[in-house]
## 1
Amino acid sequence: MADFPDVPVHPQATRRLVMRFDKNGNPVFDSVLSPESFAPRALCILPKRHVIPVIFVPGIMGSNLRATAKYDANQPPAWRPPNGTAAGLGEWFYRLRQDATARQKQLTPEHCEVDPTGPIELSDSTYTLDEREARRRGWGELHWDSYGEILLTLEKVLNDQYESSPDGHPSRLMPVWELAKTLKYPAGQKDRDGNPLPTDAIKRWNKVAGGDCPPLTDDEIARLDDYYYPVWACGYNWLESNADSAKRLVQRIQDVLKHYSHPDCQFIPEGRVILVTHSMGGLVARRAAQLAEKDILGVVHGVQPVGGAPVVYRRFRAGTETKGPFDALGAFAAKVLGWSAADITCVMANSPGPLELLPTKHYPAGWLRFERHSGKLRETLMPPLPTSGGDPYKEIYSVRVQDKWWGMVDETLIDPAGLAISDGKNGLDRYSKAITAANKFHQNIGLSFHPYTYSYYGADKGEVSYGAVHWISNDVLSEEMKPNLISCSAKSWTHLGESVLADGGKEIKMVLPRASKPESNVSENAGDGTVPRASGGLLTQGGEAIKAVFEMNGFDHQFSYKDPTAQSAVTYSIGRLVQLAKSIKDLPQSKGGAWSESSSSCLQESA
């Protein structure tokens, strides 16, 4: 080995050590001895002793699933959304070769469980946990491409509120906390269309409901530093009812609090957790809050389908939507999620969770429409459904395609694997059971929210959503047929959104076109590309429980938590919730011998 000349070491040189945790959840730092000629200091930053865990709850299809041992543990993962291009191509080819029978067997609720072995990719700047601890906290249960960034971001900004100077001493607040303190963005920033953005954060976040949202004061910023905020995750079997998933979340909350309450763990819990949710995870958390409100300090929801989404009906009849014939990414995703009604029905008709994303009675009535288009002419062919004050379960969801041409579910597509036969039933029985569970969940959850709720949702004209679903015909219907259209059966239909009706000796074609592009951010089809504005906006009806609702644009549904503006609003909301926590002077300051024992353990293992 060549000799290198002596290079003087900066007297303040410091390297920060990654914190890991022992079996009891106590922090440990590992280091090595270095020669006298190379003497950087090892920086070990211990977290505060009092703890408020933060638990992230993903959306539908955001949890990795595997086959249960009872079904067939040797099966490939039942659902592991691809991370990266190569994995995406592999998943696409896999689904391309999979028929409806195999798809149903693999993705039926009782055949699946949460898979905790998904990939975790920590960054070089992650100092507050290692992969082993991240996996213990459930991070491997979630789709990493969708949620890895927000997990890492929350872990960093909640536990390192200050940016350190080279000598390891705090120098200034992180930008996200400086923003929470001033509620001011730098001037001159523009949106994706080149329009100037307001510097006022509340205006940029577009608060549409809730009380005042004042900046965090110096004392409130200082109070953030009283607690340690380990970020956990809770995946769930999204094929099951959200009622079952809520029970799993409640168990995770209790397990996490028990983990930090253990006498051999040095941390002292405040006694409650903060929940952060994405999409359908908001429904899970709302039900969990009904079951265990006392264990939850507050909730921050992102892009929650509060009242469901009409696009679910459309998928039952036409498969997963795309943006047009040249939408390669949309076609790619559609094949993975379900290209046609056959791909969709064999899974969703047997699964309460996806059915619970159908529009509830709280969604604006009349979202299923029937029209004739001829040039600029728009003629209503029959009254829209559901009727005002009506029951969408009776009026739409229980109607078969075999009975009425616009019915939602094709009975022949429900059970291609014949799973109902072993129970002495048929496919429609399985669907009835699943839709009944969904109806019960909707009734239980209503418009109930945790008493301290913050939220954001999308209202973007650039993210086309299905605020309503239209059956359209270009054909002229006879006057004799129009009164009977609502009860007419189809002569034939496809799995891609077409129904053919017989009108005397003439055929009438009805189709489900793609949603039209909205004209503004408040138009019916504006949203986040999945959840329409009308559904997310139902949060504004939550009364005193709603502390702030932000109606935003600039992101799509799946990756909304990657948007910097959404991240800053979520961080601010968590900062406000922390102010509701108990003062640490009112909590125990000691906990047996755990503190001294774990501290010596840290030193011994770091030597």
## 2
Amino acid sequence: MQYKYTVLTNTMLGALMASINMNIVLITLPTIFRGLGINPFAPGEFTYLLWILMGYSIVLASILVTFGRISDSYGRVRMYSFGFIIFTIASILLSIVPGNSGNNGALALILLRIFQAVGAGFLMVNSTALLTDAFPPNERGKALGLNQISFVVGSLLGIILGGFLSGYDWHLVFVVNVPFAIAGTYWSLTKLKETSERIKVPIDVPGNLALAGAMILVSLGLTYTLEPYKNSQTGWSNPWVIAALTIGIILLIAFIFIERRVKNPLFNLSLFKIKPFLFGNLSLLLGSLGRGAVMFLVVIWLQGIYLPLHGFSYTETPLWAGIYMLPMLIGTVIFGPIGGMLTDKHGARPFATLGMIISALGFFLLTLLPYNFNLLEFEIVLFIIGIGGGLFASPNTTAIMNAVSSKDRASANGMRMTINNITSTISMAIFFSITITIFSQDLPSAIYNTSVSLGLPKQLATFLSQIPPSGALFGAFLGINPISVIPPNVLSSIPPNVLSKINSSSFLPNILGPSFIKGLDLSLFIAIIMSILGTIFSWFMGERYVHEEHGLISKDTINNVIKEEIPHGK
């Protein structure tokens, strides 16, 4: 087998493993939290959900550029293999966290997920660089598109395996990763070889500290905006949030000044002078801002509102929400490789731009749906959004990676992925805050009025109306009926006909739906604006260029040489 296909299959295995890991944890969070014995409605418990969901990406946002520079210096294959080893160890340790260990168990999971993110960081930052090294310029789009398929297939397997294993033991969720991790470790150590020149430079300690500090503080600040503070349902007024964001931004500004003065900067700012690299990353930033949290909100829409309305029990909703999201994955898996192959022939700009336009169209169509939507219409809209994401991803990545020289590919990919991760975190904070703010304005009175109209005592209706909106969404996401917060002795005093009404699958969804959809629609309109701006920047990427030894040259020139100068196109 040609070496380039050895690299492709190995990186596809890594992407498959990472995608299974991400999606299987999302699907089985209800089982994991029940296995740990955590009550999602207890004060402060929402923090554990945030950290299990976002701690992984916070770490990645902080380390990817550093790992890219380390890999450029000490060997991409070596660091890529090291990532597999770390991921394997973390998966084994995650699988032995004791059950019924409460918050201590949740804390152990968070710390081990952070350790796992270190391994994933070495894998992610090097996989694209290894593919770019191994494939010639006229085949890179296809290779990146095929690599994207494995990520989508992993998403599908994660959903199926998560739903199947959640009925047994939540520890098995982490055991699933181990065979893939061991196989990837063996294959990378025995089959991959260094093909790029190692550029050993001193570690930029001030730049590392400034960037890591900025990313961690900004990510932490944004994460805790989702926590209620005093009388507010969000944490934007929390002094710790304000301090973290302020210091983080100051460190980020300081980082830019540091990088302009040090001899061997961590973040090669000169790369932004390259037009495809600059505008490719700007369009990626806006795309991630627009897309990052919207899909998470759609999952909550399914799990907390639509599926219970249609007779699914709360324990079933995580699995079925994943299944109902499959059209988006199918759209991506079909059009990702198509976008990559078309990029090889015609350049990245038209297809990355078209992908952003289609994504914006999909978000707009989503705003037209009521909270109790027609399923066929919903699935068609998700498929359209998947097409947009598939068409954008491969061309955008190809344009960015083709624009930089071989010696900078791992660090450039680290820069690209740092932008993607930090903007996803920002997106989560902004859109979730918008949704909770609007949600909290309508929800308490809606719960109270509906409960009283059904014959519930006013005191109990007041008690239910005081459930924090974030807790209600948290419970819905975990597949837990918020009515379960009512103490059993109180439930026994409620007349049976009233109790059957508030326990019905339509009681809370019909209350949550109207206020939730207001917040979601506002978030979607912001996502549409971001996508339109991303469309403009995608178009500004310019013509097809590839960075070779003597600088940027036209990709058309390369293809002409391949066809005319080299016999039989070899």
## 3
Amino acid sequence: MPHVGTRYQFGPFELDAAEHRLLRDGVEVSLQLKAFAMLCVLVENAGRLLKKEDLLRQVWPDTVVEENNLNKSVSLLRKALGEHAAGQSYIETVPRAGYRFVAPVIRIEPQAASSGANDLLDASLPDQPDRSVAVLYFENLSGAKEDEYFRDGMTEDVITELAKIKNLRVVPRSAVLAFRDKTPQVAQVGQQLRSAYVLQGSIRRADSRLRVTVQLAEARTGHSVWAERYDRQMEDVFAIQDEIAQNIARALSVMLTEGEKHEIEKTPTRNIQAYDYYLRGRQFFYQMTRKGLESARQMFARAIVLDPGYARAYAGVADCCCFLYIWSDSSLDNLREALSASCRAAGMDPQSAEAHASCGFAEYLNKNYEQAEKEFQIAIHLDFRLFEAYYFYARSCFERGQYEKAASLFARASQANPDDYQAHTLRGLCFQALHRVRDACEAFRLGVQKAEHQLERHPDDVKAFSTGASALYGIGDWVRAREWADRALSLEPEEGPILYNVACVFALLRESDKAIACLEKAFALGYGNKAWIKNDPDLSSVRDHPRFQALIHGM
């Protein structure tokens, strides 16, 4: 049975074992005693096959009952969860064996009010958690512009290491990016990012030597709680990252589990030149353009040549190929490489949530939705804070018309990365498809708010303009929707995904010729996610247009 006081979240549901309550979107769901007990057991063991005899023993201890009682309880649960009506699947029947709870489950421990987990689940919490850290980009003391990729990569890897500690809330990379190359006050960072502590540092690289200085300060007072300087060889770069993470945990009185210590201490590669190529690749990858993705793939490939066992580099290749496949080159070669590279990454590092998320992404593009779902669930189980796992899982559900489930997963993605604007907008699309107008408007409003915030920090973020334009239309601001769409086109007229997003806005505005022209150009540039296009409600006004039909048939 679940631990006393433990709560769980899955889909729109929250299960409170201690209070004997099941809530759906905050509304209590009535359940019989034994059905509730069975749900607790299934959720506690999410992802595992529970044999019928084990379920009978746990739900009816010290009582001899027929198997029919078990079947009745499962039937009651399925009815209460409404999985058939909503197109969702929570409980899987394994013929002649037992049952498995297959939905992603987030576990909230009793003390989670002051831990990273609870804050993650409610991105709107006004209070600063006691154990929350914002890692600012380290200062590049070498002064060489070409060294910035290393400074960025080192900072992001420290964020990644800290994120492995479940009782710590770590501000995502995307949020701290706004403070890159600035010298803000610690109190300002803490207030804006709702972080109790701020880590600042500097890096100097000289030949084979590496000097890293770090200081952890309390945001409210500015007082230093821990500081250290590392003068090491470049080969010690991973040891430095590990020590920083463990020292921060110690300074904040966070007890690490053996599993967390093992994950933190794992070395991704022993070849420093391979690591260098990997960091260069990651810098190109974040540009999210065709040229950037192709350059990133080359860098990741070079890393693999130097270290054929470098799982992260394989995952990087897979992600590049996936994005190239849906945005600019929907060739079978890209899809095959994505499937092969992601499979190798997960095989080399089975405990890597990122690797399994990459597998899920590739399988989803391959229309192997069942396998994709399994990979996404594994990724979420390994790291419940991984944005990409929720985001692409949600897109996979959207493609299949599972709008309720997709909306729930987009909400989880937003909680994993509170600064993201895309997930809110896509959640609005899900609610539109479900004819939930009020919910759609609220999701679009949040999408606009997040996009505006992004543009305050990065005024030329073309993706924020193109995605935000759809959200603006969703809240009825048609004038600004057109302005943002035009701005996106002026900034990036040759990128398939930007052209597609703008086409959706023009279709919503009933400017069919402009919409079709953008779609034609996007498809000519290689954009070709046919399954997504077929289910996108934004394109309803042009769906019967002869030129649109010709595009679809030609894909």
## 4
Amino acid sequence: MSKTADYIGEAAADSTNALNPLLGGLNRQELLGSVAMMLRRTSVSPVANAKFASKMAKESYDIVMGKSERAPGRKDKRFKDPAWANNPFYKRGMQTYLAMQEHLDDWVGDLKLGDMEHARAAFVMNMITDAISPTNAFITNPAAKKRAIDSGGQSLIKGLQNAYEDMTKNGGMPSRVDKSPFAIGENVAITPGKVVWKNEMMELIQYTPVTDEVREIPFLNIPPQINKYYASDLDPITSIVQFLLKQGFQTFIISWRNPTKDHADWGMSEYVDSLIQCTEVIKEITGSDKVNVSGACSGGITTATFASLLAAAGDDRINSLTFQVCVLDPETDDSELSAMASERSLEIARRYSRRKGILKGDDLARMFAWMRPNDLIWNYVVNNYLMGEDPPPYNVLFWNDDSTNLPAQLHSDYLDFGLTKPFTNPGEVEIAGHVADLTKVDVDLFIVAGVTDHITPWKAAYRTTGLFGSKNIEFTLSNSGHIQSLLNPPGNPKAKYFRNPSIEPTADEWAAGAEEVAGSWWTRWAEWLHERSGDMKTAPAQDGSEQFPPLYDAPGKYVFD
């Protein structure tokens, strides 16, 4: 993999498709309305306009005279070619662009707008200024010109081929990953196991033990409905599943079915009902009355709903809970999407998915791409089309592009979750056939978040510590972003995490007392799970049981939908 491909692969890895409770709550009409609103404000904001013009005039003079010291930020990889620093023509073009980008952002900030209007205006302006970067056009990209000369024009021909492939086979979006090296069940999701139970909505996979003895209390991983489950089993090095097996845990995971419009009525109630059924199966197979449960991202919302329902019914089958990069207490300032969504836009999104029966995974991928256009669109335009390179073969992006649909009812339930905040208002909001109240859930909690996660920000994830009735809670902060913070195995030289045994009133107070720990948080989590998984016993000779015999091999069939 080239350095360019390596960079864009890593940059995109933490910009994966993940479910925000307000997902789909932003539409094209409202973004176009933001453009119209900014144009109207231009005519009634003489002070802001004059301030922008004055700044640009002064800096343009300094740039032309070679006096400007403006340079790209340390994390801005667009201008890394030496020509941007050494060639006067390119350097001045870059400085003019960066100045305009900054001053336009300031201009939007000076407009007299409401909070939501300002968030939308800033979002649209960033999309515009990102799009007109000189690196995005062949004529103003020195690296692309040099590549064309060095390759005898072959890079341009390859770039046209890549563009044609994307137009005809990728919905017009630039490809982010070379999928050809990967095959599910062959070099991705290869951990041995069996599907031991299934219904129309899920397959339950039991993984074959690799140790002579296993812990008595089994472990169940509940993945998000918006992604395939095998993020937990990408390859032997980053596989959480294989790590748990080597630690002696009886490990189960759910593979959700990719819904079609025929499954439009699948909502949170139906998903929780399936969790009740599958945990009954796990209890029978393992002989344990208890199950340790983990939920990641939007799967954590489902997990919390499941736990709340069981607590309301007096059912104590859950022994402990783990939440990974999950926000259960959403606030409008948690993300750009939350800040821009209105009740009207949410209702438009709700009606859209009801009309279609599903919210398509491809549509979600496009929305997330435009939330991070430099990382998820323009990087690939430059790499694939201007430079004529193939996108990187990266298993995380292969998994991320293997997107799934969201049933209309579940989408509606998630929109309601963002509006009514059932876990923040215990005993007041009905969800999945009961009145939610996490204060009645008193099992031990382990919560992990990512320090650079922009999808489920860690301070938002920290608020989960105040929602439950649990007396024993551990919060751990991994050193990376949304997905890389989870795929962070022991042996990774860059791995570290932050730990504070005390749960403080706020995230900032917790961070002030946290210590940096070298290594993977997986090791600490395994210690925590061992303490809550009972005694060791002889590993079962085979997967399943007499009542629930194995149906077929992992990774199952639903993963291919």
